[in-house]
């Protein structure tokens, strides 16, 4: 069985027989997986691209983040989780194949924004995707605020370059990042 298959077996009344109840396939995850806890229930959601302003649920209840490493492309994918919207404030750097099991441990008490970055071939520069404007399905932001965001970030649309060593050095989880 591959790592992407899920199989659940339950013992029947006969001690040596097992009945297959569920067998399924889960596709490889190339997104940042966010784990949340609310009212004693656990939830997860995937963030597959940069996001200036996640949903209020993600902002408030995310406790753990995981960056999966399933192929050569995703092995170069880094995620930056910021404490404030629009990629501001304290942040943690999530390298490929790593989980940050308690973001609060690093002083990140809410997920304000998430940036997706790809490591360059020289392994020193991250190219990060910065969306042109915030997406908000509930349209909670006034049109003036959206227009202001569009004007202030219009020059930085698409990608920005960051030095990986500088990001690691300034990250709240600097002691736990190992290369």
TrEMBL record:
<dbReference type="InterPro" id="IPR041305">
    <property type="entry name" value="IL4_i_Ig"/>
</dbReference>
<protein>
    <submittedName>
        <fullName>Clone ZZD1501 mRNA sequence</fullName>
    </submittedName>
</protein>
<feature type="domain" description="Interleukin-4 inducing immunoglobulin-binding">
    <location>
        <begin position="31"/>
        <end position="118"/>
    </location>
</feature>
<dbReference type="Pfam" id="PF18258">
    <property type="entry name" value="IL4_i_Ig"/>
</dbReference>
<dbReference type="InterPro" id="IPR011024">
    <property type="entry name" value="G_crystallin-like"/>
</dbReference>
């Amino acid at each position: 069985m591959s790592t992407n298959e899920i199989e659940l077996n339950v013992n029947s009344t006969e001690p040596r027989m097992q009945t297959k109840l569920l067998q399924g396939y889960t596709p490889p995850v190339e997104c940042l997986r966010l784990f949340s806890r609310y009212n004693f229930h656990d939830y997860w959601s995937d963030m597959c691209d940069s996001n200036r302003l996640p949903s209020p649920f993600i902002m408030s209840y995310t406790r753990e983040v995981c960056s999966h490493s399933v192929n050569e492309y995703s092995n170069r994918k880094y995620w930056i989780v910021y404490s404030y919207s629009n990629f501001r404030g304290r942040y943690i750097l999530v390298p490929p194949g790593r989980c940050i099991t308690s973001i609060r441990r690093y002083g990140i008490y809410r997920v304000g924004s998430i940036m997706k970055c790809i490591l360059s071939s020289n392994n020193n520069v991250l190219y990060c995707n910065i969306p042109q404007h915030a997406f908000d399905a509930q349209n909670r932001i006034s049109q003036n605020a959206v227009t202001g965001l569009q004007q202030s970030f219009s020059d930085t649309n698409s990608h920005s370059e960051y030095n990986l060593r500088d990001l690691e050095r300034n990250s709240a989880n600097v002691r736990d990042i190992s290369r």
